[in-house]
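Format notes (please read before filing issues)

Several people have asked whether sequences and structure tokens are stored in separate files. They are not. Every record keeps both together, in the order shown below: the sequence lines, then the token lines. Line labels are part of the format and must not be stripped during preprocessing.
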Amino acid sequence: FMNQMGGINLVVYYVTSVLEDNVGLTRNLSLILGGCINTMFVIGSLVPTFFLDRLGRRRPMMFGSLGLAISMMMIAILLSFSDTANGKSTSAASVAFFFTYMLIFGASVNCIPWVYVPEILPLHVRSKGAAIGTSANALWNFFVVMITPVITEALPWQWPFVFMVLNLSFIALVYFCYPETANLTLEEMDQLFTRGDDDLRADKKKLGRSTAVVRSLDRGGAWWKRGSVTSMNGLDGKADFDAEHVEKAL
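Then the structure lines:
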């Protein structure tokens, strides 16, 4: 739903018609700019390709939705001056925000739903859930493509406000309802929905510190193995560091 109702397929399928009919550009220029605008999608997609696990899931969706909302707002504002003396120049300026929209979408909202749906589902329903998610994407894609000619004709410059409001609502939806799933194992994903995000990540951080201490001790353990040290804190050459000792050390 979010992937489609943010307005992406209006831009993908109808950007040349919008540039020609609503912005007032020539047919040839609209076709050229339409191709250039769609290349921004590919360029933006390089960001999650290499940095998605580092950036997480929630932040790109929230900041991406904010960027999409701002782009739509600016398109609407600039198109609203189309009937004024400077209408041609302000309408032409709106083309820049079609570029920013496609770049931001490719860098944020584009790929995360395809990753997020399988991540949050249990193994026994993962394939069915992913199929439902894909079907929903296709359904809302069809819906947006069918209504776009109607709303762009009925609302010549107001139509971007519809998608602006929807993108802003997605920020609240992600913030309150979508837990962070980046870098979690399948076992931790189950605990995420039973114990909560804060408790799980606090335990994971604590475990990471414990693991770091144990690895540090393992790296330094060569001293007593070589006989250089015969006692360490009263252990008389023995170094048996179990989980309880590590917890006390922390």
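For reference, the curators noted about this record: The chain is about 75% helix and 0% strand. The CA atoms of residues 117 and 130 lie 6 Å apart.
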